[in-house]
Amino acid sequence: MSCVQSRRAVQESLIKLCDGPVSVIWRPKKPSASPLAPIEIAVRSWLELLGQDLLNGGDSYVENLLSRAPKRWVVYSPMVLLPPGSFGQQWWEAVGSEQVASRYAVELWTLLLENIGKREGKGPLTHLAVNAEIPLHKDPSPNFDGERLVESIENVLRTPSGLIMLHGDFGPVLSPETVPTEKDFEDAFWVSTKQNGIIQVWAPRYTMFSRGNVKEKARLLDFHSSDQSLESRRLAKEKVAKNSAVDLYAGIGYFMFSYIKMGLRRVIGWELNPWSVEGLRRGAVANGWSVKIVRSHEVLDLAEYGQIVVVLGDNRDAAKRLRGPCRYALGGIIHVNCGLLPSSEDSWEMSLEILDRDGWLHLHENVGVKDVLARTAAIEELILRWLKKTGDQRSANVEHVEYVKTFAPGVWHCVFDVYISRPGTPP
């Protein structure tokens, strides 16, 4: 029976019952109201908790506060990370009471964690922070005259000094230059997440985490799949398993873990930040991979180590340390990752020495979108010049540029895949 016939039958039945025509008005069912967002629920509950004596009151007042509250969040269990600028000075000025800001903020943070936890269903959430960009330079220190130094020092360790910790114990206050002890690691607050089936671990007070690298990690996992459009990349699993990769800027294992899951025999990396190395170690263990941390002064005997080896120290002597007997434990090195931003160019010439057979250099750099083509040609020319200088007969071809994520308006984090090969020789 059609909808029209159904309506007519109902009308006829009503007419019979009432002995006369009846006007039937059909109204569509109103859609149910969408559930309130967890942050809105938390703010409204908080305002009710405080009462009118502390606040200005009124619907417009509440709506003004809600419009200024963040709408998004990310959960890295057991921490909630809010976007930059959340609940800043302007929000508290809109609240209009210094007494509220100083005495009742903890109640708001508790409600936020509780309501976001209910929505996410990932267990108890205990820590709350506001994200911030990782500064490329440290704040310049004042000189003896009280003036700021003209040149600031590069933030080599990429310390997340701008992170605003709102609720929870994030670990002891330590200078980035302090060498952490085992007790410091134990006392620190650690979080984790899973991307592409891989667990990563870090301490947010001391170590950055780049969520936007997830796309590049996934790309590496499929780099040698059989359906690759580039024939040079289509390698059998048995071939991949005989080779290794080197990551000159390991971090917490962003790309090292992808290389291992790709099926490579071993990955060796260099990292300056001890907090990142500890996060990498914990992440490797969580994924079930064997890992060895080597200090810069220790002998690099790869024959004794597991799937992942991390040298805690500067990478300037990486090529030198990979010479000799330890090289045989790696099989062939077919990937060298140079993942430093805004540019990893200082390590490119050395990466050629490390990649002493056919393989790929993955060169990371921030590039203006209008300059990508020109930069591609410049990189290829530069590497060919280095090869020629040493009498190396291999060729270099930037076979792909991956746009990973935007770094600033009109600027992209790009990865230049440079294929280094001998003419007519399979990889």
UniProtKB/TrEMBL annotation:
Subcellular location as annotated: Cytoplasm
Statement: the UniProt record of this protein carries the keyword NADP: no
UniProt-listed GO biological process terms: tRNA methylation; wybutosine biosynthetic process
Gene Ontology CC: one annotated term: cytoplasm
Keyword annotations: Cytoplasm, S-adenosyl-L-methionine, Transferase, tRNA processing
Keyword tRNA processing in annotation: yes
One annotated GO molecular function: tRNA 4-demethylwyosine alpha-amino-alpha-carboxypropyltransferase activity
Domain of life of the source: Eukaryota
Record's catalysed reaction(s): 4-demethylwyosine(37) in tRNA(Phe) + S-adenosyl-L-methionine = 4-demethyl-7-[(3S)-3-amino-3-carboxypropyl]wyosine(37) in tRNA(Phe) + S-methyl-5'-thioadenosine + H(+)
Pathway: tRNA modification; wybutosine-tRNA(Phe) biosynthesis
Chain ranges of the SAM-dependent methyltransferase TRM5/TYW2-type domain: 119-422
Function: S-adenosyl-L-methionine-dependent transferase that acts as a component of the wybutosine biosynthesis pathway. Wybutosine is a hyper modified guanosine with a tricyclic base found at the 3'-position adjacent to the anticodon of eukaryotic phenylalanine tRNA.
Family: Belongs to the class I-like SAM-binding methyltransferase superfamily. TRM5/TYW2 family.
Name of the protein this chain belongs to: tRNA wybutosine-synthesizing protein 2
